[in-house]
Amino acid sequence: MIKDFTIPQRTIMTPGPVEVHPKVLQAMSNRMLGQFDPAFLSIMEDNQELMRPLFGTEKGNTLAVNGTSRSGIEAALIGLIEPGDKILIPAYGRFAYLLSEIAERAKGDVILMEKEWDSPFDQEDIIQKIKEVEPKIVAMIHGETANGQMAPIDKVGHFCQENNIFFMVDCVATYGGVEFKMDEWGVNVAVAGTQKCVSVPTGLSLIAYDDKAKDFFMSRFQKEEGIRTENDEINDRHIQSNYLDISQIIRYWSNDKINHHTEVNALNYGLHTGLRMILEEGKEEVYARHQLNNDAIVAGIQAMGLNIFGNIDTKMNTVIPIIIPEGVNPNIVPEFLLNQFGVEIAGSFGPLIGKIWRIGNMGYSSRRENVLHVLAALEATLIHFNAPINKGEAVQAALGVYLNKVN
User: Fold this and answer.
1) Which residues, given as ranges, of the chain have pLDDT below 70?
2) What's the per-residue H, E or C state across 167-182?
3) Does the predicted model carry a pTM greater than 0.85?
4) Sheet with 166-170, side-by-side order of all strands
5) With the C-alpha atoms ordered 217, 223, 225, 231, is the resulting torsion angle positive or negative?
6) Residue 332 to residues 14, 324, 340, 378: CA-CA distances in angstroms?
């Protein structure tokens, strides 16, 4: 007979998922409501409003897609791409290749800009490439979790708006932890998720989109067969996916609703609580907390004599990429941390496999006690495996950051 399970205590310091705030878990334990119950619709409407400030939009439209962050990325991209459309994707890490994969499956004509994963592109190089290939869409990653780098995007956004090009941005790793300015930067569509800085379990992807994008999405609207009536038109340009048909999802989240899917109660309860708590703490205060904890982690890592991977000037504050010291087994350290200290960190992807570890600094996991715990545990683990580090320095360096801030 299968026994009941027991969840072990963990300090989750990965770049997602992160620890869920207890108030979010409490909210998610509330009773179920019907998907069209006015009480639940009120929560959905609140969530649309609560999403906007962290996207940096006052006029943008918002909704959530049932699924992980990539569900929203895919819904946005396949809603924009029609067969043969040119889409330019600057790739400086793993997740730009996810955009490329989705765009290729949507029969887009993908133009990849590629570089080493140690830093983002110069915006002028991207603008020059846009002039050269004249794409319909430019799609970028704001914060790349694979390498901890963050791309400036404001000049690219302005150029896209001046030239009638759709600009879509994945801000999954930065939303709620780093300032994002959708309106000011000229972003047409931005996509985030719940499992990182919002501190809600994975399962909802958040999308903000301006009226230009909305008009285009809705130009491809086709109501699904089964709820279609003789008065509903067949659209030869309809979006290829049903579940991720953003035009139907827009209708589901609008006042003119259609029965497209069943919205998830518990995650919307959690989203409401997670977003509200960020806004109650204050956006600027939340961003400052992430920056402070990032600075403490970096100070501790460097005090041990370890190095941060990539361009430090473009490193985002939600991911700390650590170059694995020579002679240290890249897999045994995270395993030892988890088994002996209950601390979880992550490796990386592609060309960085076995070369860096990543510490996440996101949402409810971005707390002083977590920072001090992960540094102490990592130092003890490296000492155990005879790594050439400075002993007894990491936590003291982090404490110095915190105490200097107080003083």
Assistant:
1) 406-407
2) EEEECCCCECCECCCH
3) yes
4) 61-66, 204-209, 189-193, 166-170, 137-141, 86-91, 109-114
5) negative
6) 16, 12, 12, 12
